[in-house]
C-alpha cells in the first residue's frame, strides 16, 4: 500500500487537485460506541449515529476558472452533491455530501481548506 494524500477530488462534476502536503482523513459514517459508568461500577454501552466526513484536504483553485465562485455557490445551496476522490494508492471513494465549515480562500497559495460531511464509501 502506498500512503499519502489524495490525488484529486471531484465535487458535483468539477475536478480539483489537492495540495501534496495534505493529511486527509476520512471518517466513514456508521455508529459510535460509548461506554458509560453505572452507579454500581458496571458499564452500559450506547450507540449513536456518526456522519461521514472528509477533513484535512486543501483544494487547489483557480479564480480565473471561477473555481472560488463554484465552491461558494455549491456550499450556499445547502443541498448535498455527488463526490468522488482518488487517493494516492488508487483507492476511489464516492458519496454524497455537502461542504461544512468555512471556506477560507488563500489567493496567494491558490488553495482552500475544505471539510465535507455526508456519506463516503470505498469503491471496488
Description:
The chain is mainly beta. It has one domain (6-122): Elongation Factor Tu (Ef-tu), domain 3 (Beta Barrel). The protein has one helix at 67-77, and strands spanning 6-11, 14-17, 25-27, 30-37, 43-50, 52-60, 81-87, 92-100, 111-122. A hairpin with a 4-residue loop joins strand 7 (81-87) and strand 8 (92-100). The protein starts with 5 loop residues before the first strand and ends with a strand. The model has no long low-confidence stretch (mean pLDDT 92).
The percentage of residues in β strands lies in: over 45%
| Terminal-residue CA separation | 15 Å
Helical content, roughly? under 10%
Q: Major sheet: size, sense and barrel closure?
A: 7 strands, antiparallel
CATH architecture: Beta Barrel
Backbone structural class:
mainly beta
The CATH C-level class name: Mainly Beta
Compressed to H and E, one letter per element, the order equals: EEEEEEHEEE
Outline: elongated
| Radius of gyration of CA atoms, rounded to a whole number | 17 Å
CATH fold naming: Elongation Factor Tu (Ef-tu), domain 3
Number of domains: 1
Number of helices: 1
Question: Can you count the beta strands?
Answer: 9
